[in-house]
Amino acid sequence: MIPEFLRIRIEMRFGKPIRYAKDCEALASEVSKFCNEKISATTIMRLFSILKSKTKPRLFTLDLVSQYAGFDSWEAAVNNSDLNEDYHAGQIDKLAINSLHLNQIVKIKYSPNRLLKIKYLGSLDFETTMVKNSKLHVGDILTILCIQHNFPFICENVTRQGKELGKYIGGKAGKVLDISIEW
């Protein structure tokens, strides 16, 4: 119910993904304390599509969660010049793989001059959808435990056309330069 860029900023500040009712209760309490205004767990559940709703959220509610996410207001959030198709919530230092949704695309740049786009398949598995200057191929299935800025890009296992190739370390002499999520 809220834009993905805002959901990610809220989850980054909160420190974990919002998936369950108990997460919504904790987030409602934190937003209420931060903004000095009451917001219910039910409202948070609607915003994060945990609870279905046919109505749109009130501007007051959008203002509160936008303020919690670091904006002055809802209007400031949606008019932010950083928001475009390639928007990501600042530089991601460490990708929270457990907060990704199925089929979500992650773009990774690592040295020297490597670029990947990978699609999340669930259970720590990704499929490469775009490869530039890498030994990996489009269609490879990668098992990844962690992607962290300034560390080597490590795949615990690479599977190509059904055959397991083993561990892959990209940027052995370098590191991950940028991580972003595409929508």
Folded structure, characterized:
The structure is a single chain. It is built from 5 helices and 7 strands. It has 2 domains: 4-78; 97-182, no CATH class. Strand 2 and strand 3 (125-132) form a beta hairpin. The chain is α+β, with helices and mostly antiparallel strands and 183 residues long. The chain has helices at 4-14, 21-35, 41-47, 59-68, 74-78; strands at 105-110, 114-122, 125-132, 141-143, 153-160, 163-170, 176-182.
SSE topology:
Blueprint: H1 4-14, H2 21-35, H3 41-47, H4 59-68, H5 74-78, E1 105-110, E2 114-122, E3 125-132, E4 141-143, E5 153-160, E6 163-170, E7 176-182
Antiparallel strand pairs: 1-2, 1-7, 2-3, 3-4, 4-5, 5-6
- In total, the number of domains comes to 2
Termini Cα gap: 15 Å
Q: List the total number of helices.
A: 5
DSSP strand content: 25-35%
- What would you call the shape? elongated
Question: Averaging pLDDT over every residue, what do you get?
Answer: 85
* Arrangement of strands in the largest sheet: 6-5-4-3-2-1-7
How many beta-strand elements?
A: 7
- Write down the Rg: 18 Å
Uncertain runs: 81-90
Largest sheet: 7 strands, antiparallel
Helix content bin = 25-40%
Along the chain, the helix and strand elements come as HHHHHEEEEEEE
Summarize it.
With 183 residues, the chain is of the alpha+beta class. 26% of the residues lie in helices and 27% in strands. α2 packs across α3 (41-47) and α2 packs across α4.
List keywords for this structure.
183 residues; alpha+beta; 5 helices; 26% helix
